[in-house]
Amino acid sequence: MEKKYQIFISSTYKDLIEARSKVRDAILSMMHFPVGMEMFNAADEEQWEIIQETIDSSDYYVLILGQRYGSVIESGSDAGISYTEKEFRYAREKKIPVLVFIIDDDVAIKPEFIEKDPESIKKLADFKTEAKKGRTVQWWTNIDELAREVSESLHQQMDRKKRPGWIRGDAFDIEASHAEILSLNKKIRELEQENAELKSQIVKRVPELMAAVVLDQQDDEEVDGKGLKTHGKLLIDSSDNAIKIQLYHNDGECYKNKYEPLDLGCVESHLKKYVKEKDLQAYNAALPSEEEINDYAHKMSVYKTITNGGVALKLRVLNKGTAKATDIRISIVFPKDIFVYDIDDIEKMKEPKAPKLPTNPIEKAEERFMSDLNPVYGLLKNSMDGMQPFYSARSLPIIDPAIFNNSNSSVFESISIRDNSIFAECNQLPHKDDTEFDGIYIVPARKGKFKVSVSMMCSEYIEPKVHDIEFEIV
Fold it and tell me: Do 196 and 229 fall into the same domain?
């Protein structure tokens, strides 16, 4: 069936009347339909809807440019551009094939058909530059050449880019086509129904990851030097999405008691003859400074809070779905009031070294009293003092400043703890299976309710699955 095409001719008007007429005749000689501003007043903004509809129904768009920019739109979103440029932009937006024909700069033109306003000259130059982008442009020197170039270009476009066009109503059997359409629609409905039934029988196989933290209790054969896994009593209640922990209470002032100054009021009556005022003064003068004592008490309080007030946990990951999960990556971010550590780092913590106490004159007086009371005690005491101790001072635990800094991370085979967060990775996890990551140790700092954010990602997910675990510290 032979198609007829509608071609929209766009240009300025007065300076290109003859060119438009020649192009219109050339299109008619090709047995196609030319349309353009002769059908309506292109300068009338109220007619823009008609122009849009005409361009929408056109198969090709022919743009002819001379040396005039044309009438400029004065208001609205397109203020400042010409009506011709507005038509061009709309045709390009609607993906209508655009053919551009620009008059050669050396062609003699009547002065009244040449732009003289500098602003209009610049706009015309910019318009030509924009029109040339992404397409082949034909240059013309007279209207006969223009008509010939339009005909040739349209023939090429019609061969390369098939468009809807128009056909005669009697060129095909409407009744037969209608019957065929009805038959095809019926077949489509049957296939859609069959497809829906088949889909309903398909089980969508996807992984469904769940993550929870659970108590990590000490095994019978497991060595736990500090008893870090024996604090299960601090864990009051737990479920997949909620954990309640008792806050450990630690009085740091108790570590200062042994550094209290002595006076005669501290000496029992039976020892007073052995203790002199100057001995007590010398003892008090030799005590560590208040700064040393406070520093020791603070570090000891932190040490005891961490080693006695934390709970050992495991990260349990379960695949409840119907397909294997691969390349699993899990991150768990804790709030600033709940500290998370690698339990191996806590095992390596050294107890802070206590500042050295001078010889206590009251204890010395007690020894003298016992020696006077029982001479054998004095002999035994002197004998014990001369014996080599079972351990040296060098073997005693020393304070490690790093124990108060949680910036270092320890990496297990598939888990790391850093920046108060847990990062776990697993190559794969079959459906209906689970795995556990141990070595997690958390220490709450204050009472309250907190949210711990859990994010899980695997190769089968498009976006991470995110949920919260509620922590309540009481």
Answer: no
- In terms of DSSP bridges, do strands 421-429 and 410-411 run parallel, antiparallel, or are they unpaired? unpaired
Give the pLDDT band (50/70/90) at residue 399.
very low
Q: How many domains does the chain have?
A: 3
Among 228, 378, 370, residue whose Cα is nearest residue 306: 228
Instruction: Report the chain's terminal Cα–Cα distance, integer Å.
Output: 85
**Same-domain pairing of 69 and 190:** no
Encoding tokens for residue 457?
Answer: 């990602």
Residue 334 and residue 193 share a domain: no
Could you tell me which residues are beta bridge partners of residue 317? 211, 435
Residue 394: band (very low, low, confident or very high) from pLDDT cuts 50, 70, 90: very low
Distance CA 473, CA 246 (A): 6
Q: Same domain, yes or no, for 454 and 315?
A: yes
Partners of 138 in the β-ladder: 101
Secondary structure element (H or E) that encloses residue 425, with its range: strand 421-429
Angle between helices 361-373 and 375-385 in degrees, nearest 10: 130
On whether both 72 and 185 belong to a single domain, the answer is no
Query: Are residues 190 and 122 both part of a single domain?
Result: no
Under DSSP, is residue 163 helix (H, G, I), strand (E, B) or coil?
A: coil
Residue 296: inside a domain, yes or no?
A: no
Residues spanned by the domain of 346: 209-248+310-353+398-473
- The tokens describing 402, both together, are 């790093």
DSSP string covering 221-287, please? Answer: T---TT-GGG-GGGEEEE-SSEEEEPPPP--GGGGGGGG----GGGS-GGGGGG--HHHHHHHHHHS
Q: Are residues 186 and 73 in the same domain?
A: no
As a whole number of angstroms, the distance between CA 390 and CA 373 comes to: 29
* Residue 41 structure tokens: 């007043």
